[in-house]
Every structure is written in C-alpha cells, then in structure tokens.
Write a structure and sequence with these properties.
The protein has 567 residues and is α+β, with helices and mostly antiparallel strands. The protein is built from 13 helices and 30 strands. It has 3 domains: 27-242 and 406-459; 258-386; 476-566. Its EC number is 6.1.1.15.
C-alpha cells in the first residue's frame, strides 16, 4: 500500500531462525518458517505473521483485481455450513473422511466448507428468478477446510487454507463456455502477474463433477501432481487425465489357449524369469473391491495400476485393495494366478486400452501353480469396460502426436470446471426463460489456491540464501539495512522515510545490538527484491543498492537511490 508507514524490524512481530524446522520436508516450509512469515499452530493449521500476511494480501489483491476485471462480483459466504445441501448433491457422503463434520448443541449436522458449489447455487436460486438476472459470476476469497490424512509440506497441504472460488451461472451451454473462457484468460493474467511459471493441463473432474476441466500447475519438485508435457506439440495434462485410443489388432494365427505349469510364480517378476519372457508379454490382473464387490483390473505386466484412475472411474464408490480374507470361500479366485478367462459373471473385468481386442497374453490360469499362454482378448475373455488405468511413464507416446512425453512434478495452483447442471439439477435451480417456461441453469466452478500460491512462489523463486519474491507480491519494495551503529541507523531511517514519501513500501532493519552479518543474512532470507544498505560510506551520504535476485550491487547517493528505486 502506497505511503504505508515504514515497517521497522525492531518492532516487527517476527523472529528469523538459523536452522530449518525439524518437521520441514520441502523448501517453502523451511524458508517461510525461518524467515518469519508463518508459524505452525497445529498439524495442517498455520498462523500468518505480519510479513506473511502482507504477501498473502498481495496475492489476494491481484486475484481480486483480475476477477473484478471480468465482471465478477465478490461476496462472502460462511465457512460453517448446514448438512442438507450437501446431502442433496450426495457430497456429504462422497467427501468421506476429508470432510470436517460437527454438531451444534441441538444435534444438528454441520460441516466446515471444503468448497461452496451448493451454497452459491442456493444463493442464486434465492436471488435470480428470470433469465434477465443472468449470466452472473460470483466469487469469494474464503478459508476452506479438509481433514487431510497426512498434512504435510507446510502451507502446501494444510487442513485450513485460503482459496478464491468463483461460480458462473448461465442459461445456455454457450454462455457457460464463454464464462469458462473468461476465467481461463483471467487466470493466465493472475499467474503472470504473480510471477509463477505454470502449465495449463487437461484434468479429471473428480468429486466436483462436470465435463471439461483444466488445472493450472506450477512445476516444482515439492509438487504432489505429476503432469505430462509434450516437447513436440502443445499437449499437457495431469497424468490422471491421459487416456489412449483403443486399437484392436488382428489375432489370426495365434494358437489356441494352452495351460502351462509354472510353480512358485505368483508375481510378474517370477513368472517372466521362469518362462524367459518380457514382463510386457504378461497380463497383470489386480483385484480391488468397489463398494465391497470384487473387480479385476487388467494391465500389461510391465505397467503399474494407477489406483487414482480406478477410483475416479468408479467414483463416488469406495475402492479398496483386496486382502487375503477376500479369497476365502472363493475357489474361482486363486491368489497369484488370476486370469480373466473363466472369471465368470461374479467378477467385473476392466482393462487398460493396451489390452485391446486381438492382443495375446500370458496370464494366470485360475489354478495354483499354473498359467496360460496364447490368451487372446476378445477370443478367450471379454472386457466389460476399457479404462486407461496405468501409471503414465516417461516416454509414453503423446495422445496427439505420438512423441515421447516428458513427466514433471507440479503444484496445483488453480482449477477450472464446466460443471454443467449437476448442482442445478440436485438443488432445482431454474429461472424463467424468454418464453416464460422454466430453464435449468448451467454452472461453472473456478478455484485459485491463494495461500498455496504463496508456497508455490517460494518453491519456484527461492535460492540457496532464502526467499526471493517477485516485486508485486513481496512484503516490501525495498529492505533498508542499517549496517552499523548510530550514524548508519540515522541515515537508514532518513532514507526510509523519503522512500515512503515517494510511495514505496519500506522495511528497515534498525535493530540495535544485531551484527551487520546477521542483518545481511536476514535480508537475503526475507527476500525483498531490493536491499539498500547504509554501511561504511554513510558519513558521505553514500548507500549500496543490491538486487536480491541477481546479486548486482552499486553505490549511490541518497537522491540517486531514491530516483533508481522509484523509476
């Protein structure tokens, strides 16, 4: 904020630390705590100290400005929500253990909002009665709550986090497509202003539902998402969203199915070694339980099953791996020797598209110590449903052009969905159309992780000395350091006031009894873009200006420094 008072470090409620927190796993966690931006209150729950709150507020401001620019209207809805709307959409149960549930003193059920589709839908149902009231885009910047099983990585994966969520309401699908495009462009401007390196990736909708969905991912080693990027075309996608076309092959000439003894070969590795074949020649059949019913999942033996994709396919059903107990009383299921042929109607069989009709495999014969070869898909067994369920690997062909894909880790910083009418149907959101008849409204949902963006920025921009904020989100424009005693402190305070008067946000290290070395180390740890040092030449009115990112230094008079910093 222009002309805000100079922030003196002698009065700042923040203590820097020399050592990393014992529980810190990722860079942003280490540095945000060490630099005095955040402090842990409980597992997955964080307090924002003055410097951290300034950065968080700057991210909020940028998000707010770009949302306002597309005509969105800001509201603030409660975080404490009643159960009934979430029952109506099925998400009271779908969210499972991640949902914070609580009761009031009268026994009524409530939740802490993980996301607000239902409540925004009811707000528009209350306020809009005619097509003339639409389209409308509403948004809020609000805390969300999810009971993460393992909160980790500092503010990257917390149980309370700050999020911008917006919702579009249109009467036609074309209107939804336009609202979606507005958000997509606004998000590009937001992340460009924040200084984030990001990719727009095709994504799955998950528990949100809807059709089209894209994620904005910030590449970072600390990320929990894996995305694939094609070096030859513009394809990019979360690996969970990648699917391949089913391509049947001719099976003429493949001999009849033949059972072969394979004692002590319950794994793909032992089977391939015993027969002297490649793992890719074998068919792996993973058994899972979907709401208690056993389902077999077939993939080539050299590939792993992506359980996230399996869960997404069967959502909102619960998917679990089978246990030894599940084989009891099931002679049709022989542990370590399961094959798709002869499973019968009791077991649903889904397979990856690589197990296409006409492909031939070595797989279990459903007999202990026995496998079968020449087992042909479509001839010897049928696939109930084809679903791309393998873990994507580096070098897998791009679905668009066939070039080998590159994989990278990333932090999800934004997600946009074309929800369609899922929530409007559940909550009966209609308006009167131009012909006087009810029209069912279609919706979009769009999120930006505001607190998460702070961590993503720290991950992407920090160096071996500490944080290194882009100018627009930094807690100050310039960090003035008094590297000495009375003379240096006097000059540092004088120039700080002049910089403030010129409209800059100023942090000044005026701490007494702190060595210049500690002050220099703290200035690099805190990460303000420009560092202005009142040091050995203070008596001559000469300062040293340092660029935090490049390390470039130059000596300037007070007037020259002010001119340079305000240019």
């Amino acid at each position: 904020m222009a002309n805000a008072p100079v922030q003196r470090m002698s009065q700042l409620m923040a203590k820097t630390l020399r050592d990393d927190p014992a529980d810190a796993e990722v860079l942003s966690h280490k540095l945000l705590v060490r630099a005095g931006y955040v402090r842990r209150t409980a597992a997955g729950i964080w307090s924002w100290l003055p410097l951290g709150k300034k950065v968080l507020a700057n991210v909020e401001r940028i998000v707010r400005e770009e949302m306002d620019a597309i005509g969105a209207q800001e509201v603030l809805l409660p975080a404490l929500l009643p159960r009934e709307p979430y029952d109506a959409t099925g998400r009271w149960d779908e969210y499972g253990a991640e949902l914070f549930r609580l009761k009031d003193r009268k026994g009524g059920d409530y939740l802490l909002g993980p996301t607000h589709e239902e409540i925004f839908t009811l707000l528009v149902k209350d306020q809009a009665s005619s097509y003339k009231d639409l389209p409308v885009i509403l948004y809020q910047i609000q805390h969300k709550y999810r009971d993460e099983a393992r909160p980790r990585a500092g503010i990257l994966r917390g149980r309370e986090f700050l999020m911008k969520d917006s919702y579009s309401f249109d009467t036609e699908d074309e209107g939804l497509a336009h609202s979606y495009a507005l958000h997509r462009e606004a998000y590009q401007r937001v992340f460009a202003r924040l200084g984030l390196d990001y990719r727009i990736c095709a994504a799955t909708a998950g528990a949100m539902g809807g059709s089209k969905s894209e994620e904005f991912l910030a590449p970072a080693g600390a990320g929990e998402d894996t995305f694939a990027d094609c070096p030859n075309c513009d394809f990019a996608a979360n690996t969970e969203a990648i699917s391949y076309e089913l391509k049947p092959v001719a099976a003429e000439g493949v001999p009849a199915l033949e059972e072969i003894p394979t004692p002590d070969t319950p794994t793909i590795e032992t089977l391939a070694a015993h027969l002297g074949v490649q793992a890719s020649d074998t068919l792996k059949n993973l058994l899972v339980k979907v709401d208690g019913e056993i389902v077999a999942v077939g993939v080539p033996g050299d590939r792993e099953v992506d359980l996230g994709k399996v869960e997404a396919h069967f959502a909102p059903a619960t998917v679990e791996l089978v246990t030894a107990e599940d084989f009891v009383g099931r002679p049709d299921l022989v542990r370590g020797y399961v094959g798709p042929q002869g499973l019968g109607e009791k077991v649903t069989y889904i397979a990856d598209p690589r197990v296409a009709p006409g492909t031939s495999w070595i797989t279990g014969a459903n007999k202990d110590g026995t496998h079968a070869k020449n087992v042909v898909a479509g001839r010897d067994f049928e696939v109930d449903t084809y679903v791309d369920v393998v873990v994507v690997q580096e070098g897998d062909p791009c679905p668009n052009c066939g070039t080998g894909l590159k994989l990278d880790r990333a932090i999800e910083i934004g997600h946009i969905f074309q929800l369609g009418r899922k929530y409007a149907d559940a909550l009966k959101l209609d308006v009167l159309g131009q012909n006087g008849k009810p029209v069912r409204v279609t919706m979009g949902s769009y999120g930006i992780g505001v607190s998460r963006a702070v961590a993503a920025l720290a991950e992407q921009t920090a160096d071996d000395k500490g944080l290194c904020w882009p100018a627009e989100v930094a807690p100050a424009d310039v960090h003035v350091v008094a590297a000495g005693k009375a003379l240096q402190t006097e000059l540092a305070l004088e120039v700080s006031e002049k910089l403030r008067a010129a409209g800059l946000r100023v942090l000044v290290d005026d701490r007494a009894g702190v060595s210049p070395g500690v002050k220099f180390t703290d200035s690099e740890l805190i990460g303000v873009p420009k560092i202005l040092v009142a040091g050995r030449r203070s008596g001559e009115g000469v300062l040293e200006l340092k660029d935090r990112r490049t390390g470039e230094r130059e000596e300037l008079t007070v007037d020259e420094a002010i001119a340079r910093l305000t240019a």
